[in-house]
Fold these 2 entries.
Entry 1:
Amino acid sequence: MPLNVIVLGPPGAGKGTQAERLAATFGVPKISTGDILREAVHAGTDIGRQAAEIMSAGQLVGDELMIEIVRERLSRADVARGFVLDGFPRTVTQAVALDEMLDGRGEVTVLHITVPEDEIVRRLTTRRICEACGATADPGVAPVAPCARCGGALVQRRDDGEVVIRQRLQVFDRETRPLVAHYRQRPRFFTVDGHTAPSEVAGRIRALIESGASAAVATRSGGA
Ligand code: AMP
């Protein structure tokens, strides 16, 4: 049974951190549309050129392009055992397209991570990422420290200034929050309080995923 997970939540909720841990724990790829776009911007591809300005304004890249990016990514062999999606879907149009793409691919777990807005702004204004490999630095490290993964320089993300953060939160409320209603009735929709230590959040998520795995096994073997 593949492990298909969608991580939903506002910017700064810890989606990327949790998606990465979950993907590593269960040996499936993490698919982050933000990372894919930042790599395209960095490489100066066509997609990168289209996305750069939209991203630094805190707006959403068009649905059609995003859906094609994810459709292509989900067609690769490494997702046969599942995936953890971080940052997609972000609109109802994307969610409907994803439902179609995942039809027949096994059950989907949706993790909705919540964090109060003040904490989001605090996290994002202090967040640093590696200029070279894109990894997010641990919140406690000094901004001048080198990246723990590759030794690259830590920088602020271009869209992590306070004005753009407020913009991204508005876009989240308008475009992405309706996805909670889209997914809420699904059997494997879970809301997770993200306002605690990342390792604690990860532990709770892991327990939810594993409870689902054993429930699925019980169902297959005829149990309750
Ligand atoms: P993230 O790293 O997930 O915060 O994404 C950074 C930025 O990339 C967002 O603010 C959007 O401009 C763009 N982006 C990432 N994923 C999507 C998506 N699914 N739909 C539209 N825009 C996206």
Entry 2:
Amino acid sequence: MSAEDTLSDSAGAMAADRFVEINYDDVIPNNVALSSDKQLQRALEGWRPNYLGWWNNMGPVGYQASQVYLRTAVGVDPAGWAKFGYVKMPAYRWGILLAPKIEARTIPFGRHKGEPAWQDVPGEHRALLRRLIVVQGDTEPASVEQQRFLGATAPSLYDMRNLFQVNVEEGRHLWAMVYLLVKYFGKDGREEAQALLERQSGQMDNPRILGAFNERTPDWLSFFMFTFFTDRDGKMQLAALAESGFDPLSRTCRFMLTEEAHHMFVGETGVQRTIDATCAAMVKAGIKDPHDVEAVRKLDVVDLPLLQRKLNFHASVTRDLFGADISSNAADAFSSGIKGRFNEANLKGDDHQLQDATYPVTRVVDGKIAVEQEPALRALNARLLDDFIADCQGGIDRWNKAVEKAGVAFRFVQPHKGFNRRIGEFAGKRISPAGEVLTEDEWKAKSGDWLPNDDDMQFISSLMKPCHEPGKYASWIAPPRVGVNNQPGDFEYVKIA
Ligand code: BYC
């Protein structure tokens, strides 16, 4: 009997008959002693069938019976934490893995700084901690829901496999947060774990908690931009939570960051390969002007100005995920030792308590962009957003290098921090990508040049034709430089059933 058969059998057994002997460690890769933790087993027995139900109803549409070449996290050893192999998605072994414990770890910031890290939930911070874990957990299934229709238009089997890899790992990240909820938050935690399967991306009555996770991901360009920008918000938030004084959260997030890196890789290289295909087609056709959109689109590739508009949209929507620049919630989470800054433990020349420090916050004052000093403790969201913007720049520089190398005169730029914002200092303000404060009329006249318009979306949609033959790629995207796990170019990443 294969591992997969064992798994589907035991999934059924968990749902139907809780007295059947299950080898938990085979079914659920873990390093949390699941096989000897009866309480955790019982909680997961209640939740896992509902999770599988959610996966089947709200996960990737089609392809659930196909064999997909996926990596599965089976341990936390940096040298060999994952295994590659064909698996049907519903039989993926979603596990619970925490980065190794650091002995004698202390809380690195806030008013408990220097005290031993908590191994259990500190009573006084319980509600705050639970809220942050729920918000983090909510984004994971949300992104799977947003991406559920993309398989049918995959530009190659390689890309289809990457999509499914991202999806199953977002599923695992949900497991990671559910583990914390059911292990440490009793009945409330079990209820929250169930509610994570009930909210739905974009649903009117019971939507996902954060704005960007209710947007549609209608096409592959959106998917690549999402994994470049929005998964990077995931990286920044997980990094801030990895500093937490609540050690199980810190360890969970540290391991999740290992997987998150691949998601941003999918985004960065997806856009990069789109740029490569465009530049190669332009050079071949002798088109010098990247703004000659009509000529470029005739080649069935994505014009670079359109890519810039997509970048503007995804960058700005993702920036809203950082919350209000000035936030008492963020100040509380920091002072309580629950959520730190990016790279907190390694920040030098800093008291890690922020009692007197200030931080420069950009906002509109008297109709002009101004920078004002604010108490650093209240400006933590603004700071994390600045760290995010800096982190994005590396990838954008690499895209620009590719354009330059092809000899095309075009540069991608990040829009001003205030562009197209709904949350924070710039909510309700009209700011151009270059950072000019605009009137409503000026905004209306120009915003179609800065954000994807209907024509753009229709054009992208017209390119979304599936290409499901091994080794072949849709016109608008170049093949990757290397295969997954060094597989050859014509490798059949998905055996479509
Ligand atoms: N939409 O003081 P405020 C990822 C709410 S992505 C709707 O401004 P705070 C992933 C906020 O919840 C990372 N509501 O902000 C990526 C609060 O409500 P309550 C996800 C919003 O609390 C790709 C109120 O407004 N992880 O992992 O300092 C694929 C006032 O809040 C929004 C996290 O976010 C919004 N955009 O910060 C898969 C980490 N923004 O509580 C996965 C955990 C704010 O008063 N979450 N609100 O009812 C947090 O640290 C914080 O909740 C936030 C907000 C940074 C999100």
